[in-house]
Amino acid sequence: MTPAQMKDAILHHLVYTLGKDAAHAQTYDWRMALSFAVRDKIVDRWFEATRRTYAGQHKRVYYLSMEFLIGRLLKDAIINMRLEEAAIDALQELKVDYQAILEDEPDAALGNGGLGRLAACFMESMSTIGCPAMGYGIRYENGLFRQRFENGRQVEEPEDWLSQRHAWEFERPEVSIDIGFGGHVQEIGKRANWYPSEMLIAMGHDTPIIGWRGRWGNTLRLWEARPMHGFDLQRFNRGDYAAAAEPEALARTLSRVLYPDDTTEQGKELRLKQEFFFTSASLRDILRRFESEYDDLRLLPKKAAIQMNDTHPAIAGPELVRLLVDERGIDFEEAVGIARNTLSYTNHTLLPEALERWDEGLMGRLLPRHLQLIFRINELHMKDVGTRKVTAVDDGHVKMGELSFIMAHRVNGVSALHTELMKSTVFKDLHELHPNRIVNETNGVTPRRWLLSCNPRLSTLITDAIGDDWVDDLEQLEKLEPHIDDAAFLESYAAAKRQNKNDLANWIAEKLEVGIDPEAIFDVQIKRIHEYKRQHLNLLETIAHWLEIRDNPNQGWVPRVKIFGGKAAPGYVFAKEIVRLTNDVAKVLNSDPLTSRYLKVVYPPNYNVSLAEKLIPASDLSEQISTAGKEASGTGNMKFALNGALTIGTLDGANVEIREHVKPENFFLFGMTADEVMERRKIGGHSGQAIAADPRLARAIEAIRAGRFSPDEPGRYHGIVDNLVHHDYFLVCSDFTDYWRAQREADTAFAAPKDWARMAAFNTARSGWFSSDRTIRGYMADVWHAEAAPTVEDA
Ligand code: 26M
């Protein structure tokens, strides 16, 4: 597409799709016009991919996920379609600011954190590779809440990304599937009829996900809940205006909000309804498509692979069995076999409080037929393996992890360590019964968004050095290694980072009115706020460092900017106190004339995908400091390493594999191992011992306790202090001393800029393995048994 053609396309959509003339168009109008112009180009390729999937009778992959944390779509689409030059030139002629248009797009924040973002990376990689696939999820009207700070405290506001027209989706009223809840079951022989007492409709909305160079495009289908019988006209005519709209309002609540919790299982009825709603709609859509092409249901596992992203869609097991037995007359045991060979399950966490369990009573009321089938599935499994020891139903609860495990032919962990821990802890018994079922697929990230798009300076430098094959073959980055010994290359590498840091410093000055030194170490911890992720370990080190600088302000300290980003679940009290403490510490430190040129703390509110794209390219040091054994994988850790930040981290999740790839000398390791953590916990009084042994730690805790960061309310953080001193389940105190040591090593290393640049460049060169393209190829080979289709010609 030439710039002139692009300009015509933009103007066409401005006038005929938006009904605006150029003289009166606002940023929003231009953004929409550009989006539609780009979308037109995508649609042809998307159709072609769909045609080829049907024509080639390829096996399809279905990715069922409660969350897709996509972020913005426009730039991704432009970059993958190779339209950036045309768009920039066209807009320049139209005198419209390209960056302002990109920034105007709201994030599609349909996810909480790692799990949802992984699903988004996977969608992009499946399209890049040409894996025929479809993502299924919920079209939440309100995505993850917006975070604001009020006197340092987190305040949540609703997020309304759909208040403006969404340029990327196609409404599919013809794909409307009715979903039932409640009611009763009538058994007739081996089958049953379920008569639900409540019905509503799932309507599909399709978003095309285009791969690199437009070679392939898959669909993300998100379900919206709609009432079966909309507005009650008779009630309205009787004058009962509010009641007339009632069924409509009730049905719509189902797809209204994303639950804002990324670890704790809440056991709420509406949540279970959401899970069944999107799972059932997806399965019936899948079966409908399958039956339009094939007439033997036993072929299902050969033609479809259904991935359950965590246990949120775990009802897929019993629902698929129900659809096969009750609605298609297949024998129960055969149905279980078909379902199991089609389904697979990814586990994303071992934290006991995050494992979903549903009360039998609730399940039986909402999904009476499914509860019966769960009992039968459970019995059949016990009979097959000859034990009554392992069960999916226990103590009046359905355990969704166990249910998923026994209904899946493959179960995977998301990093090597996490997979081994699955085998030895939560799924120990099941693993012994099914030793080939658990496999590892270490997570990855898409290099299109997380390098090419978010870090154009580094991308250009890489392409100048080794060509652009790295974009869809990321392990080519190893070709950078010989360049690392070249002083000119290293200088350019460091210059790209410095410019990124300058941009970020300017943004922070403008948005947060905090001045930061671009020459300082940019030390960044961005992720959901959680005790196991240990933002408070980072804070304690910050405070200890501050106190030490105050002791001796004229010693040549290495300047540092500590950047935090992340949301706390609204009901998670401890996490919210960490948020407030972070803001309080920032306030005190940033206004301390003795220390502020050496140490600042910034905490931009409302951390999201778009903010990550700004922060990561400008980072020097990546904080990956969870208690070993608790972070299943992490994916932010990979994005940082790829963009040339050094990691300070524990041997947890994928950190272990990152360290092996980038080499131990280019990684600041500290802390106990997962085994040591389990041992240490058994010792009573471990935190007291650690505090007594390290005066720096004792002083930092005392500063908080005494109210140095909350002088108007000295007791404000006694909860945090008591927890650290008396419980410290996550071993913050026990790991502090070694963390401090590693931080000082980072200071020393940063003071030698050439060595630092070499280590950073080595991180980039050795991060190629962490592409989600590699991860998807692993799933295709080991889990889905699916092959890529022949792709379309390059855009
Ligand atoms: C549960 C109940 C109610 C509401 C929400 C939830 C819920 C939502 C998301 C529970 C867990 C959720 O996700 C867990 C998660 O994000 N796990 C992360 O997955 C990433 C991708 O595999 C890993 O990199 C992270 O280490 C892991 O914490």
From TrEMBL:
RNA-binding is among the record's keywords = no
Q: Which cofactor does it need?
A: pyridoxal 5'-phosphate
InterPro entries (alphabetical) = Glycg_phsphrylas, Glyco_trans_35, Pyridoxal_P_attach_site
Documented EC number(s):
2.4.1.1
Concerning Pfam families, the annotation shows: Phosphorylase
Arranged from A to Z, the UniProt key words for this protein are: Carbohydrate metabolism, Glycosyltransferase, Pyridoxal phosphate, Transferase
SUPFAM superfamilies in the record: UDP-Glycosyltransferase/glycogen phosphorylase
What does the record give as the reaction this protein catalyses? [(1->4)-alpha-D-glucosyl](n) + phosphate = [(1->4)-alpha-D-glucosyl](n-1) + alpha-D-glucose 1-phosphate
> GO molecular function of the protein, one example?
1,4-alpha-oligoglucan phosphorylase activity
**Family indicated by similarity:** Belongs to the glycogen phosphorylase family.
Q: What does this protein do?
A: Allosteric enzyme that catalyzes the rate-limiting step in glycogen catabolism, the phosphorolytic cleavage of glycogen to produce glucose-1-phosphate, and plays a central role in maintaining cellular and organismal glucose homeostasis. Phosphorylase is an important allosteric enzyme in carbohydrate metabolism. Enzymes from different sources differ in their regulatory mechanisms and in their natural substrates. However, all known phosphorylases share catalytic and structural properties.
**What protein does this entry describe?**
Alpha-1,4 glucan phosphorylase
